[in-house]
Amino acid sequence: MNYFRLIPFYILMVISVLALNTAGCGAKQFTLVIDAGHGGKDKGALGKSSYEKDINLGVALELGKLVKKSINDVKVVYTRDNDTFITLQERANIANKANGDLFISIHTNSIAKKAKGRLTINGASTYTLGLHRSEENLEVAKTENSVIELEPDYTISYKGFDPNSSESYIIFEIAQQQYMEHSIAFASLVQSELSTTANRA
Q1: What confidence tens digit (pLDDT) does each residue in 89-121 have?
Q2: CB of 109 within 8 A of CB of 14?
Q3: Which partner for 105 in 16, 79, 139, 193 could form a disulfide, CB atoms 3.0-4.6 Å apart?
Q4: How far apart are CA 33 and CA 45, in angstroms?
Q5: Per-residue pLDDT tens for 160-183?
């Protein structure tokens, strides 16, 4: 069940974070894995003149540049650096192979056309493991993970994980319990910066 370790399970957000190998971080170079959500045949949310996959890629590459420029001792690894379809399992494999310490998945918010006041809604969100307990957040996770169904033999690859089943997410959360505290701490810092530095709601 190696795929449980890193799969990003979120959409309708700006950044999702997952703290990984916190033990012994001082013994090796810190590795940041940046995941541009969607890609290739998986377009993500559709705008009037843009695809979520393209916005995510641009933001991911810019984030990587900023990190490299301002922090010398951090190695940056991208799950994709072009318009390629990468399965959720492949994203996990890339992060695991790089011995990632922190996994950041970037997505772009979308609002349903029928949502009240959707033209005036703005802001940024940061999600992390274990925060899907509300019905709304669980639906967000299910929407994101429906991309699994684009993959051939996904029921075999993901050992029976059902992106539409609440029980699958409970099992995932239990498997990730050891990383949750670090993920939440980092996500809180990200959200604070999005609010104070970037002036986002």
Answers
A1: 899 889 989 999 899 999 988 888 888 888 888
A2: yes
A3: 16
A4: 23
A5: 666 666 665 555 565 556 677 788
**What are the structure tokens assigned to 141, written together?**
């996770």
Among residues 40, 52, 148, 179, the alpha carbon closest in space to that of 106 is found at: 52
Mode of pairing for the β-strands spanning 102-106 and 74-78: unpaired
Q: Residues of 133-163 as b/e, b for ≥16 C-beta within 10 angstroms?
A: eeeebeebbbbbbebbeebeebeeebeebbb
Beta bridge partners of 81: none
CB-based contact 18:128 (threshold 8 Å): yes
What are the tokens at 158? 């993901």
3-state secondary structure of 40: coil
Alpha-carbon distance of 122 to 84, in angstroms, equals 29
pLDDT beyond 70 at 158: no
The dihedral through the CA atoms of 140, 61, 124, 174 has a sign that is positive
Q: How far apart are CA 3 and CA 76, in angstroms?
A: 21
Structure tokens at 190: 């990200």
Tokens 């890339």 locate to 94
